[in-house]
Amino acid sequence: MTKVANVPLAPPKPTLVLALGEEPVFAAGERIRILMRQPIGHYRVPRYLRGKAGVVEAVIKPTMLDNEEEAYGRNAGMRRHYYRIAIPMTEIWPDYVGSPRDGLRIEVFETWLERIEA
Amino acid sequence: MNHDHERGAHDHPHAPISADQAPGYYDLMETAVRELLIERRLIGADEIRRQIEVLDSRTPALGAKVVARAWLDPNFKARLLADGRKGCEEFGISFYDDTQLIVLENTETVHNLIVCTLCSCYPRPVLGLPPDWYKLKPYRARAVSEPRAVLAEFGTHIADDVEVRVSDSTALVRYLVLPRRPQGTQAYSEEDLAALVTRDTMIGVVEVNTPPERPN
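^ Those are the sequences you sent over. The predicted structure of the assembly is below.
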């Protein structure tokens, strides 16, 4: 008779493994920068905001087809997370006339954002 | 120029209504794309006509109803602010596309303004077609760079301690401003309130005002 080691079986892992892109990369309150990129093609990030720093105000749900890919008929697998981003007017326009609390809000796809580490 | 039509003569001046100019670049492109889409059976001519009917059925009166209800019913307002599209759908206002709606509440401390700097994104399902100035470059450029000056040109003066918040609609989200309910309207019915809410108040370029005397 073989001796069975008295070792309890490991319980199943408590967390599911999620697919890449399944969860949003950023969370509300995180500081981000809109990428400074100048690609050729159909892009929905206005130039006046490229390179500007802001804060994620909310993750907008559900994910949506990335219209920058959709413009070229690439729809399959192109649903992406996007966010409502808050940017102070004084960050966009150094000589802004108004309250320093005035701000801009815009929706931006995840592919255009990078985190600003604290 | 004064002129008479053959039937139903009228005498107000206007330029002759005619299409005697050669179509421009974009006219030709639109015709070519439309004809190709129809020829390849991707859409039918009737679908274009139908969509124009859908758009024509949408007017600021729909948005005004939503605003008046939000002023009177705090539970509805909470649902509307949580999900603008679902809130409007409670009124039977359909969205016919994948756009979301974020309703922006004006308060004592925040004044919201909407714009689309890239093109003409607008909450068409609830407001209908945008005014021409909304689509033209001066408004699109200045609303995000000098919003207080733009508001002043509409006669709207925002106090320095109130935050001006401009939402630039670029793709999938449409915005609707929920203006502040004016003072002295406690006795107004929902219908009276809705009559105060104009298109421009829901874009955020003006605030809602009461008429000097209450209509009877």
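The beta strands of chain A are 31-34, 53-65, 79-88, 103-109, 113-115. Chain A has a mean pLDDT of 90.

Shout if you want it in another format.
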